[in-house]
Design brief:
2 domains, 9 helices, alpha+beta, globular, five-stranded mixed beta sheet, 60s Ribosomal Protein L30, Chain: A
Length: 213
């Protein structure tokens, strides 16, 4: 049995060091605890976001966004422009063409397979804490090295995760001893939330390994 413990922090800002934040707010941990950092706040600390005023959607972005579902991050011209800025117009067009071809033969997912993870993890208008509630947040970088740094600093396991209120959990990076299936199960209820909870870190603890506490 595992427990998922949301950790409330200050509002994370560009330039904050997520390893320092974890060390300051998480407190005592066990070696088998898993410190899970949410990908959107992590990206914000890395200055990986756009305010809408930073973007000037092109004709291409305004056209292609119309072919994506209304709930998707690429369904607005701003989200599509952010994706184009990330990987280039040529790759976006190629991904779109391959994606359309895949749909014609009953296959899904080709667009994101070609466009890549940097596009898949774009969050269009996150709706979280001001001033980022009107920002498009990109995929964070250096996630593997960040999990290793957290492990070295706190002497526990670590992961960078993307979870939402629909029960979908993606793991962007994790240290070697992390059981990925257990992380997914523990975060399916999205204990960190997607609103203004200000809990960018969740500690997953194995209650079966309690040491007399």
């Amino acid at each position: 049995m595992v427990e998922a413990i949301p950790i409330k922090t200050k509002l994370l800002m560009p330039g904050d060091d997520i390893v320092d934040i974890a060390a300051e707010y998480v407190g005592d941990v066990r070696e088998d605890d898993i410190v899970c950092v949410a990908e959107t706040p992590l990206a914000i600390t890395q200055k990986r976001f756009y305010f809408l005023s930073d973007l000037n959607p092109s004709w291409l972005a305004r056209t292609l966004c119309r072919f994506f579902g209304q709930r998707g991050s690429l369904s607005t011209a701003y989200g599509m422009q952010a994706a184009t800025n990330e990987v280039g117009a040529v790759r976006i067009v190629l991904a779109f063409i391959v994606g359309v071809g895949g749909r014609l033969v009953g296959r899904r997912g080709d667009f994101h397979r070609i466009a890549g993870k940097r596009v898949s993890y774009i969050d269009d208008i996150t709706g979280t804490m001001p001033p980022y509630d009107k920002a498009i947040v990109l995929c964070p970088t250096n996630t593997e090295s960040i999990t290793r740094a957290i492990k070295e600093r706190l002497n526990c396991e670590a992961a960078v995760v993307d979870a939402n209120d629909l029960g979908k959990v993606n793991i962007l990076a994790a240290t070697e001893r992390v059981d990925l299936d257990n992380v997914i199960k523990a975060l399916e209820s999205n204990p960190a939330g997607n609103g203004d909870e200000q809990t960018p870190i969740v500690v997953i603890r194995n209650l079966d390994n309690r040491q007399g506490d």
